[in-house]
């Protein structure tokens, strides 16, 4: 039940509970995911939040490829997160992040933009990996994490210009915000994890424009 544990991780990090079961929304078959999108070929990524408008509301599904979940079942990141399972962890966490933020925001009748969704997911991947690594390393700060997530990654080929620009913008703002979190709360002589947690929770509750302004200008 890894995805359920990832949902709990996000909810606890941000003090943002939401009453739903991830597995009620989960699609793991690429063909099924493609059909839901009206695509002839497989989905372009191993993770996607699928949203469809109906006459009586909006339908949401979370696609995470079954191969990703199978690999994470063999190398569970909750027990040990490392280079061999970091990419799959980020894939799964990003999907859960998207779903959780949409459900949590809907409960509060908040609209969510695609850029806001991607920006929050980038921060969630960093914050979630940081939480696990600190626990698994007996409190030692993983100095390599920021570089690994924000400077040793790339974007999927074949993205439309608008889509690529959105991913790049979210990535850039998240990198800036997470670096400042490190500098302010983790890299100084006296670490303040409680301050980092408070800042993450405040950021989670900001809307799209406020998130961008805060990531850009916060000191």
Give the end-to-end Cα distance, rounded to a whole number of Å.
Answer: 38 Å
The low-confidence parts are none
The amount of beta strand, in percent, is 5-15%
Work out the helix count: 9
Query: What share of the residues lie within helices?
Result: 55-70%
User: What's the number of extended β-strand segments?
Assistant: 3
Question: Could you characterize what this model shows?
Answer:
The protein is mainly α and 219 residues long. The chain has a domain at 2-17 and 83-217. The protein has helices spanning 2-14, 30-37, 66-74, 86-107, 114-136, 145-150, 161-186, 193-204, 208-217; strands spanning 26-27, 47-54, 57-64. A three-stranded mixed sheet has the order 1-3-2. A hairpin with a 2-residue loop joins strand 2 and strand 3 (57-64). Helix 3 packs across helix 4 (86-107), helix 4 (86-107) crosses helix 5 (114-136) and helix 5 packs parallel to helix 7 (161-186).
Task: Kindly list the characteristics that best describe this protein.
globular; 8% strand; 9 helices
